[in-house]
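Thread title: Can someone regenerate the structure for this chain?

I was given the following input by a collaborator and told the matching structure tokens would be attached. They weren't. Posting the sequence so someone can regenerate them.
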Amino acid sequence: MKTIKNKFIYALPLFVALTFTSCTENEEIDKGTLKIEFENLLNGEPLQFEGFRYNRDEVDFNIAVLKYYISNIKFLDEEGQVIFTEPESYHLLEETSTRKDLTIEIPDLELQEISSIEFSIGIDPEKNLSLDNTGDLDPSNEMAWNWDTGYKFLLMEGEIFESDGNRKGMVYHIGGNENYKTIKKEVKAEIKANTTTTIEIKAEVLSLFDAPHYININEVNVAMGGDNASKIAENYANNFFSINTSN
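Best answer:
Regenerated them for you:
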């Protein structure tokens, strides 16, 4: 009996350790990942860059670069309650002829059902006037003006080709706290254990110039503040994004 009792005493710590390890491993496994994939479109088709010309307002134009900030991502349940807020949520999305960085990945999420997603385009006032930042907010990303003006929330540059052969720049740098816009979209997505769930978000470039404000790009080929920048911001808050989901 003494021998059996001692064996039981020696085995007990091992049993506890194995049980604790098993629980820890299960806790790590019972998390999921959400991937948000953006796709830039023009007239419903994947955006093409330098070397490809589009036509609008009786002129041809091309696009060299499109960049914008997505920030302060939140998930909401079917009752509209916030169930997740991403910390330090600032993502610079960029696309050119040689670079495509349009994916946001959020790991280690609790298992849950998401009924809608909320995010902003731009940088919130708390961070916007502080250029002492790193990562996607690093001023070296060429998306910051200065301490007084803050960041460019959306940048699109290209060139316009007029019918008489003249060429002129197409430059839209949209920023300013008044143009920080928050967007909420319905989305049915479920975070599953040890699985990546994907949300696909389409961004239609022409919507920047369409509604609620129609903007003639040949007449307004530059907007870096003022009324026209505000109109573009209202447009991107209205119709820039649409969502599809796949699990």
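Residues 113 and 190 are 4 Å apart (CA to CA).
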